[in-house]
Design goal:
CATH topology of the largest domain: Rossmann fold
Distance between the termini: 43 Å
Strand content: 15-25%
Number of domains: 2
CATH class of the largest domain: Alpha Beta
Number of strands: 18
Helix content: 25-40%
Number of helices: 17
CATH architecture of the largest domain: 3-Layer(aba) Sandwich
Oligomer: single chain
Radius of gyration: 22 Å
Strand order of the largest sheet: 4-3-5-6-7-8
Length: about 450
């Protein structure tokens, strides 16, 4: 069964004061929306024209926060944080996505230590993930949930104290932070292979080369079955998740442009059409979902698209290879996180891939900040791994970034003058408060 977007639209137009006013201001008669084609003509809602234009209670059914039992904040990476009230039903819908991942990990049969490495507090990642994992434990999954948050010492303390009693350990967190935890643990003598580590990521696009790098450092034999990324937002919880099928498909793509119309390799996940209705409009993802704050044709600001299961599923595959018969959504991330240099958009993932060069990964963390200051130069600040110095290595990093950008970003190669293609590189220590503050979601561009 799939979500009926027209039925949800009619309910929201009737019961949510803000949306009723939003439609009236745009001369939209809800009674005239009777088909999917009509639905696709509805104006999209955004943070600017809807979330920041109406009071929070007016965006809920009945103009009231009654029925909401908790609250989450967006990261604020695109501006001021947005407040999102939540209900138990919202958590249960997201729990189904975690169930798919943990079932693939064998957590119904194997005792599993789930370590929440997302920041805790009102930020959506930690508390929401912990709640979903506890719901799984209540359903019979053999999971113990530990919540050290994004504090490396506490995470390693939990793993050292409890890991030996469980058949596998799952770390859940932002990709670069999870890598930092693995590196720090290895430096302190943590035997990651003995922990039969599994990894769950959210919040950022990463390459398959990066996945292999982290798995190699963690002693993970099969990156396809032992890692999974989630596509989630504070706005609507978990929208989709990687499956072994989506990871296999992604790893087999030689030329992303032939599949996704872009040279960048996006995050590729599957989603449940019973809970989310996705569309792509002008290269932007638009989704409809119920919740404490219902969202109808919401443009979250992510670039991407939707593909049916049949377009990417391998023909004649064995059941374990075929995966769930769910559609795919691919996500490049937000164009606003790119920086513009001589009219060329430089995306964070372009620079991230450059920093994955074998002679760079050992002494950098993979985190950086891109800027184009008033002098028009391309500026990249790179985070050093603990115990490493960057002095004298600036030119090597600048060469790696420039070479990769020329190879993968045609705008950069053709728009940016050759004498401006080398970035000005500087290094900062791990956790530098101005560039790499601890406890918040990292911003790759400023």
């Amino acid at each position: 069964m799939s979500l009926d977007p027209i039925a949800l639209f009619r309910d929201v137009a009737t019961t949510v004061p803000a949306y009723r006013h939003f439609l009236a201001e745009r001369d939209v008669d809800p009674a005239g929306v009777v088909s999917r084609a009509d639905f696709r003509t509805l104006p999209t809602i955004t943070k600017e024209n809807y979330l920041r234009a109406y009071p929070l209670p007016d965006r809920c059914r009945g103009g009231s926060l009654d029925g909401c039992d908790t609250v989450a904040l967006s990261s604020g990476s695109s501006g001021l944080p947005t407040v999102w009230p939540r209900r138990l039903e919202d958590e249960l819908a997201a729990t189904a996505r975690f169930a798919q991942i943990f079932r693939n990990f064998g957590a119904e049969e194997r005792s599993t230590l789930a370590v929440i490495c997302f920041p805790l507090g009102n930020w959506v990642g930690g508390m929401f993930t912990a709640a979903a994992c506890r719901h799984l434990a209540a359903r019979g999954f053999r999971i113990l949930v530990a919540t050290p948050g994004n504090v490396v010492d506490e995470i390693l303390r939990v793993v050292s104290a409890l890991g030996e009693f469980y058949e596998q350990t799952v770390l859940l967190g932002y990709p670069p932070f999870v890598r930092n935890v693995i590196d720090a643990g290895a430096a302190r003598g943590v035997d990651w292979p003995a922990r039969r580590l599994k990894l769950v990521f959210a919040g950022e696009v990463f390459s398959e080369r990066w996945r292999d790098l982290v798995c190699d450092r963690a002693g993970i034999d099969d990156p396809v079955t032992d890692t999974a990324a989630m596509y989630g937002t504070a706005d609507a919880g978990v929208l989709g998740n990687e499956t072994p099928l989506s990871v296999r498909v992604r790893r087999r793509i030689d030329d992303p442009a032939t599949v996704f119309g872009d040279a960048r390799l996006p995050t590729l996940v599957q989603y449940d059409p019973a809970h989310r209705y996705f569309e792509s409009e002008g290269g932007a993802l638009v989704f409809t979902a119920d919740g404490a704050v219902p969202l109808v044709r919401y443009d979250i600001g992510d670039d991407g698209g939707v593909l049916p299961y049949a377009d990417l599923a391998p023909e004649g595959a064995e059941p374990e290879e075929a995966g769930p018969e769910q559609p795919f959504v691919y996500v490049f991330g937000r164009t606003l996180f790119a920086v513009s240099l001589y009219g060329a958009n430089v995306f964070p993932e372009n620079v991230a891939e450059a920093l994955e060069a074998p002679d760079l990964v050992g002494w950098t963390t993979g985190r950086f900040v891109m800027r184009v200051p008033e002098n028009g130069r391309f500026d990249v600040t790179v985070e050093l791994a603990p115990g490493h110095q960057g002095e004298g290595r600036e030119a090597r990093v600048a060469d790696a970034i420039r070479s990769h950008l020329v190879a993968v970003n045609s705008e950069f190669a053709h728009y940016v003058p050759e004498d401006r293609q080398h970035p000005e590189v500087r290094f900062r220590p791990v956790g530098d408060p101005d560039n790499f503050p601890v406890g918040v979601k990292h911003r790759y561009s400023r």
